Amino acid sequence: MLRLMTARAADASSRLAGLKVKAVFLAALGLTLATAAYAPAYAQNGKIGPAAQAAYDNKYEVYGGINYMNFQAGQNLPKRMNFAGAEMMGTYWLNSRLGVAGDYRFEGGTTPVLPSPASFRPSRQLVLMNVGMAGVQYRGPKNHYAAIDYHALVGVAHGQFNGPTNFDVGLYTDRTKPIGAFGGSLDYNRSRNLALRLQPDLIVEHFGSEYREFFAISAGVIYRFGKQ
Questions:
Q1: Rounded to an integer, what is the distance from CA 87 to the centroid of its chain?
Q2: What is the pLDDT of residues 133-174, one digit of tens each?
Q3: Which residue among 81, 126, 146, 202 has the highest number of C-beta atoms inside a 10 angstrom radius?
Q4: pTM over 0.70
């Protein structure tokens, strides 16, 4: 009976967390769009902006930054965890609007676990994840100061969950599973080739018995080069 009540509580908590993830993602995306709309007017009035106009005629671009993501490291764990790591993405632009992209992310963090008979078992467990994805990127509204891009990426993620003992504390076993990232980015130009990027994502993964949704966001630097 106790296990049934715990499972139901975990399921309800997971659904509520999923709704929160959607709300946070939409809020972050809305803030990104609002910032992009405000940037040109502020730059004109404040007389700040890139030294040279961005032409968006580049053939390649590379992005590197720091990344945050929330996650649930076990099917029935009652609480989620926070990942921190790094992200790298490269894009080959087919034309001024559409490009193909490859993305790699490394994440690490600790998660709360279920009680264990082993007294030396830590209450939190280190989890590591490597993510590789590919997909498309679409360049949306753009001007001299900023641009908004949209992307859809799918691939696989390998999670390392195993701890120092064989006791079941609610974690997944080490496994490789499908994952996707769907979101957009705001690029604030600092020069013709260099820009600062803020990128929120909706993460969809299938490490357990169902698809689950999480929120991720990264910030870093983008460099454009090559001529179409």
A1: 9
A2: 999 999 999 999 999 999 999 999 999 998 665 678 899 999
A3: 146
A4: yes
